[in-house]
Amino acid sequence: MNKICSYILGITACSLQLQAQETVYPARPQQGPIYLKNATIHVGNGQVITGGTIGFNGGKIIAVGNNVPVPMDDVKVLDLQGQHVYPGLIAPETTLGLTEVASVRATNDYQEVGEINPSVRSIVSYNTDSKVIGTLRTNGILLAHTVPQGGLVSGSSSVVQLDAWNWEDAAYKTDNAIHFNMPRLMARSNPFGATASGPGTDAVKAAMAKIEEVKRFFRAAQGYLQQPQHTATNLKYEAVKGLFDRSQKLFIHCDLVKEMIVAADIAKEFNFDVVIVGGTDAWLIPEVLKKSNIPVVLTQQHSLPVTADDDVDQPYKTAAQLQQAGILFCISNEGFWQQRNLPFNAGTAAAYGLSKEEALSAVTLNAAKILGIADKTGSLEVGKDANIVVSTGDILDMKSSVITRAYIQGREVSLEDKHKQLYERYKYKYGLN
């Protein structure tokens, strides 16, 4: 019996030791001013400061430039010796924290049943203990926009900072957008001659019927919200109130020209602040987007074009074409674990027409503008949150980017992650230490 107890206690101790090794605690609030000097500072708005200094205190940036005076007492000064300083990168469209293992249903909490669910809030499902979060911080991504999925109107999204105890701590901007997943306005055939929607079905007509269903919902909500009093509260109509007073944005997920024209029509009819997510064919209609003042969140640059007539490298070039046309856009990636590659997606855009600083803005300041948080983050300017990343090389280059420090609202956060832990574990196993 004693042997069995000892065995159980031994297993428990090993398990606790392993858990302790994997545990990463959120950082404490910033204690005292910090100055990073002798750095190449990429402000995020196109400006680069060589040999500069950035100071922050109380979670806010208090100084940035070449001739920043550094106090002599009670400050922490780090000489970066030429390393690069960037704004924290922003993942503008993701299910991070809403799913952990895609193939395990119990870990997926990003979708509700039904077609129209504007009252669903992604923020309350956000899991701050996700093992995926650390892999994003390691690549300089400090903020993420968590987006619900499924149905036609899937609910509201929120921006989170990636170092928190719970969703309340993580919330950076809550319920900033409602999401409409527009049905595909394209008839796609299967090998047997029937449309993808089923034999005898007009796929485009069915899609237009669903779009009209969503419009009817918004018209009904508009009428409800114009009434001074209600005999009963309608939670779905109340959930879209922010769209009508423009305190919320409507993110419309679509890719084709026809779909984006419908999005522009919705923006005009309801006076909504609309953002297009996807926007594969956005390069074909820059005049429409500019006239309607609709920004674009580009997703999945590393993919094939939509049609056989497009250039094979069209997804790589689209960002530069939107930049040239004067369209506000940012770069994203789909999914959750894939977000760790966000800076390298921006790097690809830089290789296909954007300048390095324009590509950086596409994952920092532009994303902040589209998400409605540019007053707090997205660039390294005095008064903004100290969301800062330090890298030995170019953060957009997979080969030279090595993140050495990261700060969220002035707190130095851990750069430990599951990948690094497994790397060290198996180095030890095979005697490679």
From TrEMBL:
Residue limits of the Amidohydrolase-related domain?
349-412
Task: Note the coiled coil stretches, chain numbering.
Answer: none
Keywords of the record? Signal
UniProt KW Signal keyword: yes
* Record's signal peptide: 1-20
Q: Which SUPFAM superfamilies match?
A: Composite domain of metallo-dependent hydrolases (SSF51338), Metallo-dependent hydrolases (SSF51556)
Q: Does the keyword Signal apply?
A: yes
Q: What is this protein called?
A: Amidohydrolase
